[in-house]
Structure formats: structure tokens, C-alpha cells
Amino acid sequence: MNIQNKSMLMAAILLVTIFISGTFSPATAQPVTKEYPYFYKSARAMGMGGAYIAIGGRTDTLFYNPAGLGNMPVGDGWEINILGLTGEINDNVIDFADDLWDAFDLGDVDMDGDEDDDQLRAVNDVLEKYTGDNLHLRLSDFASLGKRTESIAYAFGGLASVKLDGIAHQGLGSNGMLEVNGDAYYGGIGGINYTMSNGLNVGASLKFFYRDALIHTFTARELVDNEDNLEDYITDELLENGSAFGFDVGALYNIPALASLNPTVGLSLMNIGDMDFGDAGVVPMTVNLGFAINPEIPVMHSLLIGLDYVDVFNNFDQDSDVGKRLRFGGELKVLKKKLASLSLRAGLYQGYPTFGADLCLGVVDVNYVTYAEEVGAYAGQDDDRRHLVMINVGW
């Protein structure tokens, strides 16, 4: 997708956001969204509460810890993901759509022979109800391939991702009318891992991404003045572009003690030296720690439990909250056959519960995940419940 098409898509999403969230009442202060930046969220990882640094085992571990490639199964051949399409939406958008549909379906409540005035009042009530709530949409595709031998594992992939968060304010205060934080990433990533005889895995990855960023607070006057050329105004005046290389390293160590639990510790340094996209912003370097166990259990195929702490040195400048940096969860594979598998996942992400289910039939893999992102300054302040569906075609 070229820059012009992505810019048009960003503008189209913005127009939808303006429609579904605009109102012009007197203002009150609203909190600023403080979500941490990311390139890609693995459906598997998010189902497990985001705990993935010491687990990995698939090509998507490139976004968490390249040493996780060392946990890919030996002898399974290539992992090939032709299509890895992910769609994500939050509860506010879902609830808003339901309420707006009900408003449009309203009849002649005041019995004056005209339905339009009743519907208009109902729509205005809906718009006012959702003022100050975050509206979140994300669409991404990660196509990849990877393979592991006895000592070497490697993976490559291409990512295209568009994300938008919008918060409507009441229009007349310092917050403006509509606060928008959107970005689009597209590019490639590749990594390699070496497994040593002492149970140590060391990995490294290199990535190159373009970024389009739209971070702006619109005023009512600004929207009115640019009503006839809003798309051009966004593309020419507000949308920032940039590109950057990123380098990551990581390690996994399988602890010999407590072999029945198969414990592993993980360390990753992601975006070493920061990824500077120029006017489109910076994605900072982070140091991340993880711990996982993979105990043998009867009946079920496998159990994984992980605990992560990300951004040890607080390079995310949104806050320094410990709770937002904690991830905990696990995966229970209840069925694994040649042409079918089923995994259930659960965890705590930033202190909020997550749940995931993964059903694979032949070459089609369907994931559902629900989790909550903390968009406030500390865990427990302002949770944003989201729903993610991923459809993957591959083997």
C-alpha cells in the first residue's frame, strides 16, 4: 500500500471518528490517552496477558524477543503464514454502534406525527453519552515464514498496520473538539537465533519500517474551515512521515534445576538506540524480562505459564507505573492433531483479565482475544476493553 492510499485511509477513518464522536457542548477537562507504542500485538501473546518474552516459539516472537525463535519446534518444517489478518475494536465503538442504531430506529415518541425530531434528540443524546470515551480501531496483516534446525532458527516477515484512537471533547475548551492519535506502519522484519549446548538461546533481529503518524487535536473552527478539503488538509498539513531501522537482541536460558517444570528466563533489548522516525515520532528502546514454565501435565497436550516485566528502565515516557508494565498468563493446548488443534489462553495484562481461544482447522487458524489496555497514567485508572480477531492462513 503506497503512502497516498494509506493517507486516504487514515483520513477516511478520521472522518468516521468525527461523525461518531462529535458534539459541541461546553467543555470539561478529559484525560490524555497514555497507551504505550507498539508495532504489532500477537494474538497468542495477548491471550496470555502479553507474557511472551520467555515463551515465543512462533515467528511473531520477533516483536517480543528474537531468541524466542529457539523455541520453535524442531522437525516441523517451515512455519508459513501467508495471511495473518487482525482486526481490533474496543467496547466503546461496539456500544456506540448499538446505541446509534437504536436512536435511528426510534419512532414517534412524542406523538406529534414526526419521527425526525425524536431521532435527532436521540442521536444527540448518544453523541453526548460517549464524549470523553476513547474510540479504538486497528487493522493489521503480518505475513511471515520461519524454520528451526537443531541449532539455528530464523524467520522473516512483512507487516502492514493501521491504528487509530480518537477521543471527542466538548469542543470549547483547551482540549479542542477531537483528539486523534493514529499511525500506520509498513515494512519488514527478520531474525535469527542460535541454540547452544548448555540450554542458552541467543537471537538478533533487524527491522525497517515506514511510519505515517497523525497526532493532533482538532478544534471545531479548524474542522469547519477545512470542511471542503479535509482529506488534503490532513495529508498535506498534519500527517507526518518517516522511516527507521531497528535492531533487537535477546536471550533465553533453560534452567537445569526443576527440570520437571522446564523453567526459562528471557531477556530482550528491543529498538536498540531508539527508532527515530523524524517528524513522525520515536519508538524508544526497551529492556524486557520474562520467566516461563512448561510443566508436564496429564491428559492435556501442553501447558505454558509466563510472567513478563517490560521497559525495565522506564523509557516509555507516558509514565513510570509498575502495574502497566506487568504481564502474566498462560496457554493450555487441549487438542493437537494433524489437521486440528485447540488452545485456550488467559492472563492479566496491566492488571486486567485477558482471554483467548485459538482453533486451527487445516490451513486456517482463527483466534479470538479480549483484553483491556490501560489508557491512563497508572494501572486501574482508565481501562479500554478491546476485542481482537485474527484469521491466519498457513501451516
Overview of the structural elements:
- The chain is an alpha+beta fold.
- The chain has one domain (3-394): Porin, CATH 2.40.160.
- Helix content is 17%, strand content 45%.
- It has six helices and 16 strands.
- It has helices at 3-21, 43-47, 91-104, 116-129, 220-225, 230-238, and strands at residues 79-90, 134-148, 152-168, 178-195, 200-218, 240-254, 264-270, 275-276, 282-283, 286-293, 302-309, 326-336, 340-349, 352-361, 364-374, 383-394.
- Strands 1-2-3-4-5-6-7-10-11-12-13-14-15-16 form a 14-stranded antiparallel barrel. A two-stranded antiparallel sheet has the order 8-9.
- Helix 3 (91-104) packs antiparallel against helix 4.
- The longest helix is centred in the N-terminal third of the chain and has 19 residues, at 3-21.
- The radius of gyration is 23 Å and the shape is globular.
- It starts with a helix and ends with a strand.
Strand line-up across the major sheet: 1-2-3-4-5-6-7-10-11-12-13-14-15-16
Give me the secondary-structure category: alpha+beta
What distance lies between the first and last C-alpha atoms, to the nearest angstrom? 25 Å
CATH class: Mainly Beta
Q: How many strands, what sense, and barrel or not for the largest sheet?
A: 14 strands, antiparallel, barrel
Please give the domain count: 1
Number of helices: 6
Using DSSP, what is the number of strands? 16
Residue ranges: pLDDT <50 for 5 or more in a row? 6-32
Assembly status: single chain
Radius of gyration: 23 Å
At the fold tier of CATH, the topology name is Porin
CATH architecture descriptor text: Beta Barrel
State the order of secondary-structure elements, H for helix, E for strand: HHEHHEEEEHHEEEEEEEEEEE
Which descriptor suits the 3D outline? Answer: globular
Return the average pLDDT rounded to an integer: 87
Strand content: 35-45%
Tell me roughly what share of residues is in helical segments. Answer: 10-25%
